[in-house]
Amino acid sequence: MRRPRTPAAPQGFRRRTDERVVSTASSLPSSRAGVRKRVLIADDSAFMRKVLSSALAEGGFDVVGAARDGDEALRLCARLRPDVMTLDLAMPGVDGIAVLRALRERGPTTPVVVVSAFSPGGGAEGARAVDALAEGAFDLVVKPEAGQPLSQFADALRRVTATAAATNRAAVASAAPAAPAAQECPASRFPRVTRTSGARGTGRIVVIACSTGGPKALADLIPALPAPLGAGSMLVQHMPSGFTASLAARLDRFSALNVREARAGDRLEPGTLLMAPGGLHLRLGTDGVAALTEEAPVGGLRPRADLTIVDAARLFGERILLVVLTGMGRDGLEGARAVSKAGGRILVEAERTCTVYGMPRAVAEAGLADATLPLDELATAIAEEVGA
User: Which of 10, 157, 284, 332 has the most CB atoms lying inside 10 A of its own CB?
Assistant: First the structure.
């Protein structure tokens, strides 16, 4: 029997992590020509401050300051108001996590890219990475190991920093209104698909897809979902190997659902949310049994949500409920087409609550979304869709 639901996650449980030393987001744009984004660096290592400054300056960024510890980082951030800040987590005194918490308490603030050392094996370092995302970090870039080419690290750093700067609150506030297809539409405006009985049962299968900003969104959404939830649920979040286990553990701690990484041979169960492990595709066989594969990344992503969604649509047809949250790129679009063709339902997160309005936009602007809702309304909509 499922344990009683624990209290909702603390307010600090918030934000987001695709390959080692490469950004956790994909297809990241560089800075726009002629526009120099202002960057503040925070790292206790003089060597790393020099590496970061050189890499960013060569990428067309204006490095406006360099902090040696957390206290100085907070002071300079308040005074200089940069477009983005890079932040090491392991600093003396006020460490990176404390800096992120302080920034979050100030309200809308400078986007932060965490640049720190993480082991691909996860463990304590994986949990620390999830902590950083939960406390408001935009994304992570892993520091290079000894002997690793600095060019790979520098390229990843510039791509992520450019993307973070582009999502600055001020830029979002001045953005043009969304296209009509992407405007918010309550789920109540759309009739539900009548469920049909069959060998696989009558409950809906919920599939959630997200990328950049996903951990923040999931920290709000998953603890608000009831258990059991339909006939089972799956989650694909773009993260490297090792980090998904830590994210699943944190979500499980605060949720009524059992949240864990998927294992080969798993079957969908009403009280369990299966998360695709980082570095592997989550597939479903014709018998509905989960398989984890090392097929080539699709569009640079492994796991790829499209693969999981298409498998689920093929198996469960109109019983599928697809939920597309914040994220870079278009992963989930092909899956949404399969779900729509099968007669399933599709909910997408509204632009105003997304960290990056990429994945939901692709689905909404293709005319595939049955409803476009802010994050704080999605849990209720999902529960209603599955009849919970």
Answer: 332
For residue 246, what is the enclosing H or E element? helix 243-253
Tell me whether residue 4 is in a domain: no
Whether 161 and 247 share a structural domain: no
Nearest to 9 by CA among 134, 99, 138: 134
Is 281 catalytic? The answer is no
Q: Is the pLDDT of residue 189 over 90?
A: no
Judge if 161 and 221 occupy the same domain: no
Confirm whether 18 is domain-assigned.
Answer: no
Active site residue 211: yes
- Condensed to tens digits (0 to 9), the pLDDT of residues 337-363 reads 999 999 999 999 999 999 899 999 999
> Which distant-in-sequence residues (6+ apart) come within 8 Å of 236 by Cβ?
207, 208, 209, 210, 275, 276, 282, 303, 304, 305, 308, 309
200-216 confidence digits (pLDDT tens): 346 899 999 999 989 98
CA distances from 100 to 6, 88, 106, 314, 352 (A): 25, 11, 10, 42, 22
Token output for 208: 């959630």
| For residues 26-31, average pLDDT | 40
User: Does 19 map to a domain?
Assistant: no
Specify the range with the lowest mean pLDDT, choosing from 35-49, 100-114, 298-312: 100-114
pLDDT-derived band of residue 106, with 50, 70 and 90 as boundaries?
confident
Task: Quote the number of domains for the chain.
Answer: 2
Catalytic residue among 23, 211, 233, 246: 211
Q: Which domain holds residue 139?
A: 38-173
The residue among 153, 173, 193 that closes a domain is 173
* Domain co-membership, 263 together with 186: yes
State yes or no: is 119 an active-site residue.
no
pTM: 0.80
Strands 320-324 and 205-210: parallel
* Average pLDDT of the residues in 81-101: 93
Same-domain check for residues 91 and 134: yes
Choice among 18, 238, 246, 306 that is catalytic: 238
Q: Which among 18, 306, 331, 370 is annotated as catalytic?
A: 331
Q: How many CB atoms lie within 10 A of CB 372?
A: 24
Does one domain contain both 167 and 203?
no
Q: Are residues 271 and 375 in the same domain?
A: yes
